[in-house]
């Protein structure tokens, strides 16, 4: 019998319900686990988290909550091997790709444990120095940041069942905010197992961490004005969320990460055969295919000087041809499956959609799959070439969420940045060049429409962290089409879970209020 992924609400595991969804191995089609439909008793469960969970967390100092995060990390590290087994079966990923999710999540959790330890015994945060409001300097204004009075609801995407949880939960729990996680059903097994391990270990107070598997019916209805919501997923779903009364009427604070047509740009100086050219090709091939291209930060548009289009396509085709696709259980497999046949069909439809303005420059489907058949969710990498950079529209509007990227030729730096901006806001842009002045100028221009700009020269080729890798010390998010959200960024992540208020009071009162505070220095 496949396991049932029970909800954990109101400080207890909920009984099995009628199964509404079955999670499948995307390679073999084997049934792996089951979830129910809509969760019951959400209002009471949210109230329990908002009261019992929050009060227990906020009775601690930041330093004590940091220790709590460190203890959580130890629990997860002890079960690491089982998480890899679940990721292989449920997400269809090879070990290196599972590591992007699992090790990335654990690293982020440890990062916030260390960051929080530096806040010590503080219970509130001060933002800047006190301002003088009276001539005698006795009446002052001090901006303070206090943890919100609500909970944090996370509705996550299917591609990062580990990292997607902990990159949100770590700063929330450090802030003293209880978390309710709704993972994407199709890959919920790993999230559920991690939550189970942490709950069973007793390292968090009851109500601090809850999980809802199955569908999301009623989750937004249970939010109240002091709660916060963080969503990662499609722009269409994001639009629905933004129109919900909790956000539109009650001003529930919402952080959205949606579609992103990220761009990677080859410099005009990076001639074929140069070190910057080789770095560009190597990294583009890697970023296209990690997790089968199912990363919100994957490069969907590859901007290269028009004169280098053929050379880039030829070099990239050589790299992609060496990537064997198939069953992640086969040691020769370098790239596993998409998470489901639905996702497979979405990629095929996306490729057809882009064919109106693009030609196929490389089609990996010519190679046979390893230990997998046509009924699996395996899809080979595909490189497209945009026929007319100025006339093309869909390549800047439609994201194919798989191992697909489109080469686009540009005339000069201004043309390149204009094309990049057509994405209407993305999570990340990367630049590869050996010309520091050129990179500095282009990076500044790209920063206006990208949440992160990743600049790589041959000097840092071996040490740079990668176009697609989200590091907890840098912000993650992007304007416009990317959702307008912002996560991580070191201590900046705590902003979302705190309420900023200006305390206007006698200096002696402010001194008392800030006695157990620490300056908020990002």
Features:
single chain, 522 residues, alpha/beta, Aldehyde Dehydrogenase, Chain A, domain 1, Aldehyde Dehydrogenase, Chain A, domain 2, 2 domains, 7-stranded mixed β-sheet, 5-stranded mixed β-sheet, 14 helices, globular
Written account of the structure:
There is one protein chain. With about 525 residues, the protein is α/β, with parallel strands linked by helices. The chain folds into two domains: about 10-260 and about 485-520, Aldehyde Dehydrogenase, Chain A, domain 1; about 260-470, Aldehyde Dehydrogenase, Chain A, domain 2 (3-Layer(aba) Sandwich). It contains 14 helices and 23 strands. The chain has helices spanning about 40-60, 60-80, 80-90, 95-115, 165-175, 190-200, 235-240, 245-250, 275-290, 310-320, 340-355, 415-420, 435-445, 505-515; strands at about 10, 10-15, 20-25, 30-35, 125, 130, 140-145, 150-155, 180, 210, 230, 255, 260-265, 300-305, 360-365, 380-385, 405-410, 425-430, 450-455, 475, 485-490, 500-505, 515-520. The strands form six sheets. It has a seven-stranded mixed sheet, sandwiched between helices. Strands 5, 6, 7, 22 and 23 form a five-stranded mixed sheet that branches. It has a five-stranded parallel sheet with strand order 10-9-8-11-12, sandwiched between helices. The chain is globular and about 70 Å long.
Nutshell version of this structure?
The protein has 14 helices and 23 strands. By secondary structure, the chain is an alpha/beta fold. Helix 12 packs parallel to helix 13 (436-446).
